[in-house]
């Protein structure tokens, strides 16, 4: 079985997201280790991008901090390499298409393979356009994570059938960032997905409180938290304590 998929077998997965090089190299390495030590089952590491169309203000600000620190793709790879000296926690990259394209799809995937990166989330690359990249994610044994949005309606089945690793269920329309309410459609949508695939489903977008994490984890196989964590890191608050609370609640 696919290595990412296996993680979800006996537990709900906690998938925190951090932006690479926000605010600097050492802090990012330390944050990855802290998350791994405090219940993260997969770490989603964002490669900063100049035009992050799916990102809300909190993550855009983090991208800017990373750019200020001088981030580039090779530096992100170096961050992972450094973290890999101390942890085997599964890591997936959140990357926009152009980053991988400019690096060269094959070179990018090869490097991911060398660093033991398990998957790629590429929010601006729809299923129909994934062929060129998929050739190399397949070759280097990296899961191409599919996103299913509330709007993907008639495409849900098609996307679910193509899924590998896990499915990223986008909780609601719009950009990343805290939300207070979640759609009643989430549960029926996940049920429809589960009729056609065994690939686990993790919900992301908007989750910040422990109660939300707990409630949404009951609908799915895992939860993804980005902006709340990025915000906490920016404010210098206790990442270990928050990660611990979330991972024990789900
Ligand atoms: O920040 P939120 O609302 O907790 O959502 C997770 C999200 O940040 C992370 O998975 C992510 C960051 N950038 C993205 C772009 C598209 C899809 C997902 C993402």
From TrEMBL:
Pathway involvement of the protein, from the record: Amino-acid biosynthesis; L-tryptophan biosynthesis; L-tryptophan from chorismate: step 5/5
Claim: Ribosomal protein is one of the keywords in the record: no
Pfam families the record matches: Trp_syntA
CDD domains the UniProt entry points to: Tryptophan_synthase_alpha
Origin superkingdom: Bacteria
Keywords, ordered alphabetically: Amino-acid biosynthesis, Aromatic amino acid biosynthesis, Lyase, Tryptophan biosynthesis
Record GO terms (molecular function): tryptophan synthase activity
E.C. number(s) listed in UniProt: 4.2.1.20
Active site feature: 44, 55
Annotated catalysed reactions: (1S,2R)-1-C-(indol-3-yl)glycerol 3-phosphate + L-serine = D-glyceraldehyde 3-phosphate + L-tryptophan + H2O
Keyword Lyase assigned: yes
Its job: The alpha subunit is responsible for the aldol cleavage of indoleglycerol phosphate to indole and glyceraldehyde 3-phosphate.
Subunit record text: Tetramer of two alpha and two beta chains.
Family membership noted in the UniProt record: Belongs to the TrpA family.
Name of the protein this chain belongs to: Tryptophan synthase alpha chain
């Amino acid at each position: 079985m696919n290595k990412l998929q296996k993680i979800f077998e006996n537990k709900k997965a906690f998938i925190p997201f951090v932006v690479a090089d926000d605010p600097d190299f050492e802090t990012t390495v330390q944050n990855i280790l802290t998350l791994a030590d405090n219940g993260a089952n997969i770490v989603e590491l964002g490669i900063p991008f100049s035009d992050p169309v799916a990102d809300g203000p909190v993550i855009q600000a983090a991208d800017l901090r990373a750019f200020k620190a001088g981030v580039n793709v090779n530096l992100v790879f170096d961050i992972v390499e450094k973290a890999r000296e101390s942890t085997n926690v599964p890591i997936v990259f959140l990357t926009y298409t152009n980053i991988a394209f400019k690096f060269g799809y094959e070179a990018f995937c090869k490097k991911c393979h060398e660093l033991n990166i398990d998957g790629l989330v590429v929010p601006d690359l729809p299923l129909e356009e994934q062929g060129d990249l998929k050739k190399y994610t397949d070759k280097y044994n990296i899961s191409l994570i599919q996103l299913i949005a509330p709007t993907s309606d008639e495409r849900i089945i098609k996307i679910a059938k193509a899924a590998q690793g896990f499915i990223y269920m986008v909780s609601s329309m719009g950009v990343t960032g805290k939300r207070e309410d979640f759609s009643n459609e989430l549960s029926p949508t996940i049920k429809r997905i589960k009729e056609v695939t065994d690939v686990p489903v993790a919900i992301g977008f908007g989750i910040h409180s422990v109660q939300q994490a707990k409630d949404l984890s009951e609908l799915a196989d895992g939860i993804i938290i980005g902006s709340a964590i990025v915000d906490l890191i920016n404010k210098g608050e206790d990442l270990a304590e928050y990660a611990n609370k979330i991972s024990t609640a789900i």
